[in-house]
Each structure stands twice: as structure tokens, then as C-alpha cells.
């Protein structure tokens, strides 16, 4: 009897699976906290040069005398220059400008950020981008080597990732300098990537086919809880070290996973570790209050020819699998370009930074609900087509709004941008689920990991897509809509339907997807 058949007997989503899944959902909650905390800790508030020799200088004028000093010392609208005034022998006043080395910041929104503490402004403003990139670089490399879990198992990578995340979170609180921050953020991203991949795949592999959509989508809601939680924490805690400390405390719980989360029995079976898999299945049956017959236990394995030596390059030996893989890579790149391209430019929308992040979470929640309630009913292909079409159409509409709408109609830009983002979020959530269903168990971490690399690559490029708006305001939306429509067509033509279908365990199973 195959593993999916056993799940039909002991329960596709019984009490045991629900308990484990509830624990696993804590990981995306932590990811939501850690990946979005930079919205606050790396925020650059309004600033100007500090007036030389003036103690207790503040960004806002304290009185008329202070205002006069600011006007005399600071060139108008300058953040990086001071004015040097002097009189020549004839008494004529001359003025020159020079770069300053200290600044004062507006503390009305943030008491203290990484930018203000380490003065990442003016000539050093690019260092802020570097700090952002080190986190994404860690994610990129972490996802890139995620296939290690296909060799050593899901649990070891979860434990390693959780340890790195916890340690890195506490180290950030006591960072002595900018270089230390950047290095630690790299390891933080590396840890997040390793835990996220394996946690997600364990969630898919412990349940039956009809319940995968629940584990694949509900975990995204805990990401949203992390988004809402960091919005609240960021509002309440305006000092970056204390904010990081509050999040670090949450990460401590991750260390308990080593005692709670089991290895994936599906992975154990594909690697020929039948005895260990049987122990977990028996525990699963006992918790679900189902008596597992001896003859069922004896045959709880996959066919002998499925226990193979893993070679990821086999995914590229078949023209059909190669095309499907490349299309899935493009899909991840597309939805990430749209998501991060908009998220990194939330300041162009109405509302402050806290409100914008909160509203974005609301729209993401709507997207996840759509996937949850209609994902199995209409199938992956139809839902992907609809979500990418809505995203592309709305983002294309923004182009014409920017070109032809009057100033009092610019609110339409925000509306269509958010609806387009919602469509992209539906596709993003769906592709997470679809990718896990598309790749075989023996290469599932490789598939989701390399696909996620495309998303991390997009997150690195996305800010540069936003820069095109400096040259032509509608340019980013032309790019977003073009990618969306391209992915729409290729997805509908080449990717197989996987809703309510057994998870493929081998590359042969993967080839058979979509064939009647």
C-alpha cells in the first residue's frame, strides 16, 4: 500500500497532522516579523546637517533664534551640505558650501533607526541598500542550496535554520557597527530560507491530496499575522534595538521544533528508510485514534523502483519537464517583481508607513482566502490564469491613469495598484502550493528552493525597476503588466493540473502529471 493510501486509512488531516501543522505555522509568522521589520529599522527619516558647535541641536526649530541659525547654516532643502560664511578685507560676505559629517534627524515617527544610529545618509546612503541586499543574498543562497534537505532530510534543515534565525536575531540587538549588522543579516536570511523550505514541504507531505490546499494556504495566513504583528510592534516600539529584541524573543520558541516536529514520512519512504517511516505512521495512527492493521504497516512503502539516487539534473533531461521548470521559474520571478516592486514603493500610495503595510496585509488576506476556497474547485490552471489576468489588466490600467487622469482622479492609481497587487498575491500563494505539488518528493526541496531563488533574484532587481519611474512614471507598470501577461500565457499552455492529484514521488510520476 502506498503512502497516500495509508493516509486515506488513518486520516488525511487528522489530529496528529493538525498538531504538527499548528507548530509548523509558527515559522511563517516569524518570517513575517523578520522580513518586514526592515520597513521600520532601516527607515530613513527626514534629516539635515547638524549645526557645528550647537549643543542639543534638533531637526525641528526650537525657537526663532534656532530657526535663524538653521537658515544661515544650511542651504535651502539641503540634507548633506553646510554653508560657510566669511568676510573679506573689504567687508564683503562670501559663502561656500561643504559636506557635513554629522546630522540631526526627525524623531517624530522613529526615535532611532539603523540609519540614524550609523548615519547611513548622504555619501553613505548606499550602505542602507547594501544592508537590505545582504538579507536577500542570504535568502538567495539559502534557497539555492535548499536541495540539501532532499539528501539529509527535512528536519535537520529545519533545526539548522531555526538555530541560525534565533542566534542572528539576538546578535542584531547588540550590533556594534554597520559591518556587523550586514554580516548577521546575511546569516539571518540564510536561516530563514532553510527553515521555510523544509517547513513548507513537511506541511505538504504529512497530509492527503485533498487537504494539501489547506496546509499550503493557511500557513500564508500566519505570515499575515506576522505582518500585522510587526506593524503593531513597530508602532509601539520606535527604537530599532528594542524592536529587534521584541522579535528575537519570539524566535526563541523555534528551538523547540527539534523535539516536536518529526521527519517527513514521505521523504523517509522515498529514501528507503522504511522502519523510521513506520514508527511515525504508527504514532500518527495512534494519535488519530485509528487502528493500523499489521498488513497495512508491512506494506507502507513506495514501490522498490522509486528508491533512487537523487540526481537533480534529471529534471532537465525531458523536454516537457525542462519547459515546465522554466515556466515555473518565470512565474516566481513575475509575481515577485510585482510584489516587491510595489511593496518597496509604498510611499507613493496614500497613508503613512504603518497604514500602508497594514492595508497591504488586508489585500494579501483576501488573496489567500480566494486560493483557499476556490483553489481545488477551479483548479490551479484556471486560478492562475484569472489571477494573472486581473493583475496584468489592473497594472496596465494604471499606465493610462498616470497618463490621462486628472490630479483629483489619481486615487484610482492606488485602487488599481492594490487590486493588481491582490491578483499577484493570489498567484504568489498559488505558485508556492503548485510548485510543491509539481516536483517529486526526491527533489521537492530542490524545486521549491530554486524556484524561490527566482523570487529572491526578483527582489534584488525590483528596486531598480522602480527607478525607471524617475524617467517615465508609468514605466514600472508597463514592466509589471508585461511580465504578468507573459506568465499567464505560458502557464496556461505548459503547466499541468495538480489539484486533488497524488503528490509525485519520483521523476517518472512528475512526467505523468497532466496525462490521462
From TrEMBL:
Compartments reported by the entry: Membrane
Topological type in the membrane: Multi-pass membrane protein
Organism placement in taxonomy: Eukaryota, Metazoa, Spiralia, Lophotrochozoa, Mollusca
Gene3D superfamilies referenced in this protein's UniProt entry, alphabetically: MFS general substrate transporter like domains
Regions annotated as coiled coil: none
Molecular function GO labels: transmembrane transporter activity
Name used for this protein in its record: Major facilitator superfamily (MFS) profile domain-containing protein
Signal peptide (residue range): none
Pfam families in the cross-refs: Sugar_tr
Domain Major facilitator superfamily (MFS) profile per the UniProt entry, residue ranges: 20-499
Chief place where the protein resides: membrane
Keywords noted in UniProt: Membrane, Transmembrane, Transmembrane helix
TM stretches of this protein: 20-42, 125-145, 157-174, 180-201, 213-236, 242-261, 321-342, 354-375, 382-405, 411-434, 446-465, 477-495
SUPFAM superfamilies from the UniProt entry: MFS general substrate transporter
GO terms under cellular component: membrane
Amino acid at each position: 500500500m502506498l503512502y497516500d493510501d495509508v493516509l486515506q486509512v488513518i486520516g488525511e488531516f487528522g489530529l496528529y497532522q493538525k498538531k504538527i501543522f499548528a507548530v509548523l505555522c509558527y515559522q511563517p509568522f516569524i518570517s513575517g516579523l523578520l522580513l518586514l521589520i526592515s520597513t521600520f529599522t532601516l527607515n530613513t527619516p527626514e534629516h539635515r546637517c547638524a549645526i557645528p558647535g550647537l549643543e542639543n541641536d534638533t531637526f525641528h526649530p526650537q525657537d526663532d533664534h534656532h530657526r535663524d541659525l538653521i537658515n544661515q547654516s544650511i542651504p535651502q532643502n539641503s540634507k548633506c551640505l553646510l554653508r560657510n560664511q566669511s568676510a573679506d578685507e573689504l567687508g564683503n560676505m562670501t559663502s561656500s558650501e561643504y559636506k557635513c559629517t554629522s546630522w540631526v534627524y526627525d524623531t517624530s515617527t522613529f526615535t532611532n533607526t539603523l540609519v540614524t544610529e550609523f548615519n547611513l545618509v548622504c555619501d553613505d546612503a548606499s550602505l542602507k541598500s547594501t544592508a537590505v541586499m545582504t538579507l536577500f543574498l542570504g535568502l538567495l543562497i539559502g534557497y539555492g542550496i535548499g536541495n540539501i534537505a532532499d539528501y539529509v532530510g527535512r528536519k535537520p534543515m529545519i533545526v539548522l535554520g531555526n538555530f541560525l534565525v534565533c542566534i542572528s536575531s539576538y546578535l542584531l540587538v547588540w550590533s556594534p557597527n554597520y559591518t556587523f549588522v550586514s554580516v548577521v543579516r546575511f546569516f539571518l536570511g540564510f536561516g530563514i530560507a532553510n527553515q521555510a523550505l523544509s517547513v513548507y514541504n513537511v506541511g505538504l507531505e504529512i497530509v492527503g491530496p485533498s487537504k494539501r490546499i489547506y496546509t499550503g494556504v493557511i500557513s500564508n495566513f500566519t505570515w499575515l499575522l506576522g505582518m500585522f504583528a510587526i506593524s503593531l510592534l513597530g508602532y509601539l516600539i520606535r527604537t530599532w534595538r528594542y524592536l529587534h529584541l521584541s522579535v528575537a524573543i519570539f524566535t526563541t520558541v523555534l528551538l523547540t521544533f527539534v523535539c516536536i516536529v518529526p521527519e517527513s514520512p514521505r521523504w523517509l519512504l522515498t529514501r528507503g528508510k522504511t522502519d523510521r517511516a513506520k514508527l511515525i505512521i504508527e504514532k500518527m495512527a495512534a494519535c488519530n485514534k485509528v487502528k493500523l492493521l499489521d498488513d497495512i504497516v508491512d506494506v507502507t512503502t513506495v514501490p522498490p523502483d522509486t528508491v533512487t539516487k537523487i540526481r537533480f539534473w534529471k529534471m532537465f533531461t525531458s523536454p516537457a519537464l525542462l519547459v515546465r521548470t522554466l515556466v515555473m521559474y518565470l512565474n516566481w520571478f513575475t509575481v515577485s517583481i510585482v510584489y516587491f516592486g510595489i511593496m518597496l514603493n509604498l510611499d507613493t500610495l496614500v497613508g503613512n508607513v504603518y497604514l500602508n503595510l497594514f492595508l497591504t496585509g488586508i489585500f494579501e488576506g483576501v488573496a489567500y482566502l480566494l486560493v483557499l476556497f476556490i483553489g481545488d474547485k477551479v483548479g490551479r490552471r484556471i486560478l492562475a490564469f484569472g489571477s494573472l489576468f486581473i493583475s496584468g489588466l489592473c497594472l496596465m490600467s494604471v499606465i493610462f491613469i498616470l497618463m490621462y487622469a486628472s490630479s483629483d482622479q489619481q486615487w484610482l492609481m492606488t485602487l488599481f495598484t492594490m487590486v493588481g497587487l491582490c491578483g499577484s498575491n493570489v498567484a504568489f500563494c498559488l505558485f508556492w502550493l503548485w510548485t510543491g505539488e509539481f516536483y517529486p518528493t526526491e527533489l521537492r526541496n530542490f524545486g521549491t528552493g530554486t524556484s524561490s531563488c527566482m523570487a529572491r533574484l526578483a527582489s534584488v532587481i525590483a528596486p531598480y525597476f522602480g527607478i525607471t519611474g524617475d524617467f517615465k512614471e508609468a514605466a514600472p507598470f508597463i514592466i509589471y503588466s508585461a511580465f504578468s501577461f507573459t506568465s499567464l500565457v505560458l502557464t496556461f499552455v505548459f503547466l499541468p493540473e495538480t489539484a486533488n492529484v497524488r503528490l509525485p514521488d519520483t521523476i517518472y510520476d512528475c512526467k505523468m502529471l497532466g496525462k490521462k
